[in-house]
Amino acid sequence: MEKLRRYLAQKLRLVDLPTNDQNNESQQLVLSKLSLDGIVEYIKENTNCKIITMAGAGISTSAGIPDFRSPSSGLYHKLDKYNLPHPQAIFDFNFFMKNPEPFFTLAKELLPEGFKPTISHYFIRLLSEKGLLLRHYTQNIDTLERVAGLSSDKLVEAHGTFHTGHCLKCRAPYTLLWMKEKIIEGIIPKCEECNEGVVKPDIIFFGEMLPERFRILADRDFIHADLLIIMGSSLVVQPFASLIDRVRNTCPRLLINNEKVGTQDRLSRFLGLRQGLVFDVKSAHGGRDVAWLGDCDTGCQLLADKLGWGDELRALIQREHERLKVEDKSDN
Ligand SMILES: [Zn+2]
User: Fold this and answer.
1) Is there a binding annotation on residue 61?
2) Which parts of the sequence belong to the Deacetylase sirtuin-type domain (predicted)?
3) Does residue 272 come out as left (phi exceeding 0), alpha (psi in the -120 to 50 range) or beta?
């Protein structure tokens, strides 16, 4: 059976075949309870706990950020006049090279302006302030982690960001502020260095490589994590989704999401691969994955409350939202 399992895994080129050592390792009991309380106990017991957080659109929905990748979001109606081959073409790099206008029309609606970070964003910042955050990996391009005050060295924007842009011809860098002025005026931003190239925000389009920072840090970080917290992601977009399998076998994984996602499929289970989250483990030994179902903000506040940081988190949010309000006023 073991032979067949290994043969199939090699044939199918499935990654991360666990060694015998890792199999033994996974027999240890990591969490006292497979629940949020079990995770809280684990964090309290591990004073130098190194936590990686991973987040998707779900941490930004309560900020009012539209889910622009979904054609049903309504934003795409504004693009009817461009006769796009399909809605997603707007984020297709080759299409953009030929015709950047539809993207910038949509970008006007999407500019990260006036949105306030959510409880979830500030919870991540609190983890960082407490020295527990190894790194935060986000799929979001809305820059709200930066607005929430998370330092850029703790942040990996896996799908790029609106925060900066580059000329597609000479690679000259531009700021969000510079791009914003042009986009709001309805002008396609053109490079002032070479006077030729279009300046594209550094968000990752279909057909583009992910940022090098993502590859380098993912290789380095995940093996060192003591706890992985996944929030508000449907865990379907690769390679982001498969990051969950790059932590050690003994690293507990907490999913805070409206529904259970990223679960192990039957083939991976048969092959004994550590692919996907495994909830509701009945065996007395195993089990390290916990799902807390609900919206991210409620989950993060509850986790903070249970850790005894609830008031601190509330105070941080109040202070920061006040500060942003003052900044907004002085901007206008
Ligand atoms: Zn240029």
Assistant:
1) yes
2) 29-310
3) left
pLDDT in tens, 272-300: 776 799 887 766 556 899 999 999 999 99
Provide the token pair at 230. 């996944």
Cα separation of 280 and 278, whole Å? 7
Confidence of residue 10 (pLDDT cuts 50, 70, 90): low
User: How far is it, in rounded angstroms, from Cα 50 to Cα 43?
Assistant: 9
Domain assignment of residue 219, given as a range: 29-63+118-159+212-331
CA–centroid distance, 23 to ligand 1, in Å, is 53
The answer to whether 49 is a known ligand-binding residue is: no
Report yes or no on 322 lying in a domain. yes
Question: SS3 for 251?
Answer: coil
Q: Is 300 annotated as a binding residue?
A: no
User: From start to end of the chain, where are the E strands?
Assistant: 51-55, 133-138, 155-157, 160-167, 173-175, 199-203, 227-231, 253-257, 289-293
- For residue 180, report the distance from its CA to the centre of ligand 1, in Å: 17
- Using the 8-state DSSP alphabet, how is residue 229 labeled? E
Give the CATH number, domain containing residue 264. Answer: 3.40.50.1220
Stated pTM of the model: 0.86
**Catalytic sites, residue numbers:** 159
- Distance in Å, CA 280 to ligand 1 centroid: 54
